[in-house]
Amino acid sequence: MTSPCQSLSAPGELVRELLARRRPGYSLEAPFYLSEALYQVDMEHIFGQHWIFVAVEPQIADAGDYITVDLGVDSILIVRDDEMQIRAFHNVCRHRGTRLCASRQGMVGNIVCPYHQWTYDLAGQLIHAKHMSDDFDLRSHGLKPVHVRSLSGLIFICLAEQAPQDFEQMAAEMTPYIAPHQLSQCKVAAQVDLVENCNWKLTMENNRECYHCVGNHPELTISLYEYGFGYKPDALNIGRLQRFEEILAANHKRWEGMGLPSAEIDTLERRVTGFRTQRLPIDRSGQSQTMSTEVASRKLLADFVEPALGGLSFWTQPNSWHHFMSDHTVNFTVLPISATKTLVRSTWCVHKDAIEGVDYSVENLTSVWNATNEQDRRLVEESQIGIASGAYQPGPYSPFTEGLVEKFCNWYVNRLRALVR
């Protein structure tokens, strides 16, 4: 019997065979989660060709602040330059390839290679290289740039030579939703990295449904309306579903009257840079995603005076989700490490003037999602173990609760069909 992760003679051949067998409405075949060849295809054609969410602007608030992000074998340096513009470069010296910045974050005046001290300014131009010939041209040895964009404080990069142009369309549609929260006027209150022993697609699929939430996420479901994430309508719950729709409509009317767009936009399947957004009410007439459903920070974001602004959710293909509330934001990025290992990075932001221990506590701010992330880690790791078994075969999605999972998989499959030759 063929192993579920056995590769054919070439990755492209394997991909084409799997895509040809793709059954709509069902989970993906095992090699998509197990195969090293498929992992390399994902890094080249998904993470190498699309806009990838990597950070928030408060991580590089001042000139000279930098962060580094690893995408497979590529290390990317993201820096705030002297003009306060965000720049992104391959974190590789143009001399002999040494990694320039080894730390995950820091501050520099100039970017200096630790090997031979080639020196670059914050715009990536080479400004000093000792012991080179008289005709050596500094201008032709600047750092290799990477596409970078900020969407109201959310930083995306793209490694492709030509980045997908529909980012501008997403930015035009999403800016009115996100901008009122003024993320650039926030600070990072906490950041937690969690490594999951699973393929990155299992992490994303798990995020795209709440079929599993009741019974697995007691902390998260305190603040979430279960009906907001799909439910089979039947005689037992039709009244509660209708009541949720009434609550949603009333809150949308109120929030939009305050200048906060709230209606759903869903382009997850039909665009290269797919996304979805919607502002949802917090259960128990709540204010924020906390154990008490009250705000985690008494210092609200921006110029908000009303704490009960619901939770603006924003999902992007292929690797992020975000929640914006009146008092804080929590932003998630998913970065593959290997075919069976994935980094989930969670970042909590509060108003830059909020004082820890006075306006908020980190424990209260992070407790819901720290618990939820750890619960999700166990779930996806068990899925990875099961998929590696010879007994695994793709199973059917629930049409009521797993529609966004299918949209993620359809987007992924369609992008491979378009890119793999």
CATH uppermost class of the largest domain: Alpha Beta
Shape verdict? globular
The level of helicity is 25-40%
- What do we call the CATH homologous superfamily of the largest domain? Naphthalene 1,2-dioxygenase Alpha Subunit, Chain A, domain 1
Q: Say how many strands there are.
A: 17
Average pLDDT, all residues: 95
Protein name: Rieske (2Fe-2S) domain protein
Family: Belongs to the bacterial ring-hydroxylating dioxygenase alpha subunit family.
Domain Rieske: 51-157
Keywords: 2Fe-2S, Iron, Iron-sulfur, Metal-binding, Oxidoreductase
Description:
The chain has two domains: 59-151, Rieske Iron-sulfur Protein (3-layer Sandwich); 183-419, Naphthalene 1,2-dioxygenase Alpha Subunit, Chain A, domain 1 (Alpha-Beta Complex). 26% of the residues lie in helices and 23% in strands. The protein has helices at residues 11-21, 31-34, 36-45, 167-178, 200-207, 238-257, 362-387, 403-419; strands at 52-56, 65-71, 74-80, 86-90, 105-107, 111-112, 119-120, 126-128, 147-151, 154-158, 186-196, 265-266, 275-280, 311-316, 320-324, 328-338, 341-351. The strands form four sheets. Strands 11-17-16-15-14-13-12 form a seven-stranded antiparallel sheet, sandwiched between helices.
What's a quick, concise take on this entry?
With 421 residues, the protein is α+β, with helices and mostly antiparallel strands. It has two domains: 59-151, Rieske [2Fe-2S] iron-sulphur domain (Rieske Iron-sulfur Protein); 183-419, Naphthalene 1,2-dioxygenase Alpha Subunit, Chain A, domain 1, CATH 3.90.380.10.
